[in-house]
Design goal:
The chain contains 16 helices and 11 strands. The protein is an alpha+beta fold. Helix 11 crosses helix 13. It is globular and about 60 Å long.
Length: 346
């Protein structure tokens, strides 16, 4: 597709993809409708690279909407609805293509805005949003696995005037008839949902260095990531489990938190599959020496989200079944494989 609006969407995609407060790693997606073609971001690619490589995939809009209406499982296998006459890059469309198809507006932007997630994971999210989004045509959609379950839930709540979706334990969707309209709406909603951020104490780098000795873990280069553990409230939130899909995909279910005095080597010895990140309460974090950009980005996302959650707030954590559902889903296995091949894709 070649048009001024399409180029404007590519520019916007790159801008929001480079903003970790809106998008982390391969999360988030954008789309634009051109007649019966829905151009949507490819699964596994980073929006931040939208101007450097072809990240959009053409999907037959009518076909995927028909699949949703019929509750056809192919609705969450959007690659079977790719238009072969227009496709060039051989990639799969976003696993959230149905979200873009169901919004009637021409331009749709889905982000994992940390301000939104910090509210959307709370048990009282609906009441909080009702106050913050007065006058906005929005719908709150309680958490459902992305794909057909989420499509069903959105379809049941859609009204012709809705231009904003708050996805429980997930993120934000905004839509407009132009890229400029969608971008302005995105800025307005993020402003409305903004929450104060709790500052984190400094890490104990000397102690962490000792705890990392003889292990496959090291200090992260970004010191702000230690806030996941130096802030004991963040650590309490981490101990509760997983709160949103990309955390599960990139970091695994929940976090592994060290026992008092336990070293990284001792944690590796007791774990059959050591995770990319270890938390040491009050001290900071250690990350795998071979950690990829995706898990690092999602660790930063956790710090950004958790630090915006008030102390003692009741949260809606994923169940073990919901974690397993995400990790066992074919579409996410595909995205995980792309993440492992990250360097060549980024």
């Amino acid at each position: 597709m070649s048009s001024t609006e399409y180029q404007a969407l590519i520019d916007l995609s790159a801008r929001i993809g480079a903003d970790p407060a809106l998008v982390q790693a391969a999360g988030g997606n954008t789309s634009i409708k051109d007649g019966d073609t829905l151009w949507v971001k490819a699964s596994g690619l980073w929006l931040a690279h939208a101007k450097e490589r072809d990240v959009m995939v053409p999907v037959k809009l009518g076909a995927i909407l028909d699949a949703v209406a019929k509750d056809d499982p192919s609705a969450e296998k959007a690659h079977v609805h790719v238009d072969p006459a227009l496709a060039k890059n051989g990639l799969r469309p976003s696993i959230e293509t149905t979200v873009h198809a169901l919004m009637p507006q021409k331009v749709v932007v889905h982000v994992h805005c940390v301000e939104t997630i910090a509210l959307a994971v709370r048990a009282d999210a609906e009441q909080l949003l009702a106050d913050k989004l007065k006058g906005v045509a929005y719908a709150f959609v309680p958490y459902c696995r992305p794909g057909l379950p989420l499509a069903r839930a959105i379809h049941a709540r859609m009204r012709p005037d809705i231009s904003v979706l708050i996805l429980g334990n997930h993120g934000l969707v905004v839509a407009g008839e132009t890229v400029a309209e969608a971008e302005a709406l995105l800025a307005d909603i993020c402003r409305r949902l903004a929450s104060p951020r709790r500052p984190a104490p400094a890490p104990d780098l000397a102690a962490l260095s000792r705890l990392a000795l003889d292990s496959s873990y090291t200090l992260p280069s970004d010191e702000s990531l230690h806030g996941a553990a130096t802030d004991l409230e963040n650590c309490r939130i981490a101990a509760g489990g997983s709160l949103y899909p990309d955390h599960v995909i990139f970091l695994g279910p929940g976090f592994m938190i060290a026992a008092p005095g336990e070293s990284a080597v001792e944690m590796e010895d007791r774990l059959s599959n050591p995770p990319p990140v270890l938390l040491f309460p009050g001290k900071g974090v250690l990350v795998k020496k071979a950690i990829e950009p995706g898990p690092l980005a999602l660790l930063g996302c956790f710090v950004d989200v958790a630090s915006r959650i008030p102390e003692g707030a009741r949260l809606s954590y994923f169940t073990p079944e919901q974690n397993a559902e995400l990790l066992g889903w074919d579409a996410e296995k595909y995205r995980q494989e792309l993440n492992k091949r990250g360097a060549s894709l980024q």
